[in-house]
Amino acid sequence: MQFKDLVQMRRSHRKFTDEEIDGDDVKMILRAGLMAPTSKGQRAWQFVVVDDKMDLEKLSDAKDLGGQFLKDAPLAIVVLGDPMQNDCWVEDGAIAAISMQYQAEDLGLGSCWIQMRGRGLSDATAADTVIRGVLDIPDNMSCLCVLAIGHKADERKPQNEDKLKWENVHVDKW
């Protein structure tokens, strides 16, 4: 598949089959994240791969809205960074995350970014706090997102070329 087609085909999937993900596919997805460009070549992000059903269910409750479907995914990749080590940890983590999502799509798998940075529970518990507790993550690390990954259980149409907002592109000046 050409990259232009891959970009058009990649859509967020929140429904997955029960089929496990092949270990080689997981390695390829992680490889894509590890090869992602980073500020000053720091490669300071950390990834935690989670396939334990109990842990996936606990992670799905790390914030009030938008993450509950994670409990039905066969795999999650938690994307972390240390804000004190790298002032570009958010950008670096985002680049790595989308690289992993494109690789998942190329392998025929579905994925969905679950925002965790700045999110939490109605009782003011930060999603970071919940995630640290579930996965024994050190206090200096912050969670940007969790990628839910699995075999697609739903069909999504490719991005509609006619709906691209070309009016948001400016050349030379606004």
Short description:
With 174 residues, the chain is an alpha+beta fold.
Largest beta sheet: strand ordering? 1-2-4-3
Order of helical and strand elements: HHEHEHEHE
* End-to-end CA span: 35 Å
The number of distinct helices, counting runs of at least 4 residues, comes to 5
Rg, rounded, reads: 17 Å
Poorly predicted tracts of residues: none
Portion in beta strands: 15-25%
Give the integer mean of the pLDDT values.
96
Instruction: Provide the structure class.
Output: alpha+beta
Helix percentage range: 25-40%
> Main β-sheet: number of strands, strand sense, barrel status?
4 strands, antiparallel
Give the oligomer, counting copies of the same chain as homo and different chains as hetero: single chain
- State the total count of DSSP E strands: 4
Shape: globular
